[in-house]
Automatic annotation (TrEMBL):
<feature type="domain" description="PucR C-terminal helix-turn-helix">
    <location>
        <begin position="463"/>
        <end position="517"/>
    </location>
</feature>
<dbReference type="Pfam" id="PF13556">
    <property type="entry name" value="HTH_30"/>
</dbReference>
<dbReference type="InterPro" id="IPR042070">
    <property type="entry name" value="PucR_C-HTH_sf"/>
</dbReference>
<feature type="domain" description="Purine catabolism PurC-like">
    <location>
        <begin position="9"/>
        <end position="128"/>
    </location>
</feature>
<dbReference type="InterPro" id="IPR051448">
    <property type="entry name" value="CdaR-like_regulators"/>
</dbReference>
<dbReference type="Pfam" id="PF07905">
    <property type="entry name" value="PucR"/>
</dbReference>
<protein>
    <submittedName>
        <fullName>PucR family transcriptional regulator</fullName>
    </submittedName>
</protein>
<dbReference type="InterPro" id="IPR025736">
    <property type="entry name" value="PucR_C-HTH_dom"/>
</dbReference>
<dbReference type="InterPro" id="IPR012914">
    <property type="entry name" value="PucR_dom"/>
</dbReference>
Amino acid sequence: MSLYITVEDLLQRKYFENIEVVAGHEGLSRIVKWVHVMDVTKIKNLLNGSELILSTGLAWKEDKNLFFSVVEQLIESQAAALCFEIGTYTSILPQEIIDLANEHHFPIILFKQEVPFVKITQDIHTLLINHQYQMISDLEGYSQKLNKKLLTIENHQEILTFIQQFLNVQVAILFHPSDIQFIPNVDANERNELIPFINNLVPDHLSTSIASVPIQLLGDNKAELFLLSKVRGITDFDRLILDRTATALAQFLLRKHYFEEKRRNEETDFLNNWLEGECSEDAIQDYIAYHSPQVVGKGGFVCLCRLETLDSFSNLDLTYFKLYARTIFEQHGFTFYSIERKGLLVFIFLNMRSTANWKKRMTEGIQKLLQSDLKIGEYKFRHMLAIGKYVQELKNIGMSYKTAAETLRIQTRWSEQESYYFYDDLHIYRLISKLNEHLELKEIVMEYLEPVIEYDKKYNAKLMDTLKIYLACNGSKQETAKQLYVVRQTLYHRLDKLENLLGEDFMRHEKRLAIEFMIYSYDYLISSRQVKKSGQESL
């Protein structure tokens, strides 16, 4: 059975023995989806397209203008053809209508004698319904064969060849504007004719000769699959086959990417040496050229990712997570190599675009990852990300690894800084962390802030909050009162008390800098739990 039923097919049926095609011969290949008996003049909103219209001519009788309007509406509604009796109610067929139908390849068919419309519709509807059942069977058979092929194929071209031979239409797949593949292959001239179809630059009357569907992989459109035909319209059956094929292509590409990711995971020795600074620039470039020949790196950095309950994730879970992350970050101009090290996921990122905006692009990628509904195994994705210094020479990636580890250590001990992903953004927190390693930071903090801390503890006066905001507002009393939601007199009273506790010179430049630094240090000590709640009385 044919994949579709055309006007020409129906003209071979028994009730169309005594007819004449008077216009639109070039449209006899139009697809017929249903039959309507219609004798009204306003029909635009009554049709869905591809209907064969049967009429007695009663609607327009001998009114040439009304007849012309009816044909215009049928063409605009994309009806398949018009069949009407000549002689019963109308005997005219003006040349203007014939010219209009020929211009739009719209068939007009005359019954030269009275015909039973009821029997015609019954016959054609039976044919169409049987055809629908056959299409469902064909679709199921196609799907089964395609699923079997997925077990053995090694190239997506085999899938494209399969659908092309099944539907006998031109197939194309668009991976990128500069990467369009045609099945079967076409010469340069035909390629130039087909490109406008793919770019959606074709006249309206040819719009039914093309269909497309995106190939989605983990939420990202990896390609677009097209069916193109110059000789017939694309049917609903074609579109169903197209959807099934797109799903199969997505499964094949996902499997391909999965095995590529798995192969990368097995190449850990070199990456470990790279992180330890034991690889030369030439060796690194050779490694990149072999494993990622399309990548032209412009420097890079290390990103550490701490996942909750890392040990409970299977290799499949982690591979899926890394594949999902790769899909996101490649859209923002990065690629990466990854290994698991010391309970962490370590990503060596390579930048493939401008170095001027790498942090902005990386932040956008992180936000997209966090906003996704990604699950790793049974767990919603939770993270702690730490990004080291950017290095121009990839042999220095070990420095980025060390600074990423320092960033993660500060984040771990100072929970408020989890939103600071980059080592370069930690600034004063890095100094505080270093000082705390070598000095008794608590004692220095108490030397400056103990009077305020003790006063707040005793009277709940909120002097520490006032001091923080007053310094952050550069001594602006109006802005400080606004941020604290207090009246001026309340603020003046608190500032007087701060002068009594810290000294009248606490806003002098040198002392102010020291106090601000100690406030940051105090928050660090509290947040990192070095000062236990029970011991905060001494603070």
